[in-house]
């Protein structure tokens, strides 16, 4: 494209490809900018489409199903409680606990 007057330069086939490069994304509801799918714009078109896709996904939000989350948490807690083995406390702490149990019992 000639930046001075906006006319498309080149052969008729290239001109048709440039126009198609704008009209195809528009027909699918995609953003379309530039003068077509030339080597100077193709990479930017791919980046623009990826950004648009990510924005659309972010706009859709996250579906939260409370029952599903609650079930997952319950399963994780149950697995933790059945497999967890606490570390030993050490002789000094065990002795102090025995002393406290003795005081509480009598």
Q: Please provide the count of β strands.
A: 0
Poorly predicted spans: none
Structural class from helices and strands? mainly alpha
Domain tally: 2
The major beta sheet can be summarized as: none
Give the C-alpha Rg: 33 Å
Write the layout of secondary structure elements.
Elements: H1 12-27, H2 42-60, H3 66-83, H4 91-105
Brief account:
The chain is mainly alpha-helical and 106 residues long. The chain is built from four helices and no strands.
What does this structure look like?
With 106 residues, the protein is mainly alpha-helical. The protein has 2 domains: 12-60, no CATH class; 66-105, no CATH class. The protein has 4 helices and no strands. The longest helix has 19 residues, at 42-60. The chain is rod-shaped. The relative contact order is 0.06.
Structural features:
mainly alpha; 2 domains; rod-shaped
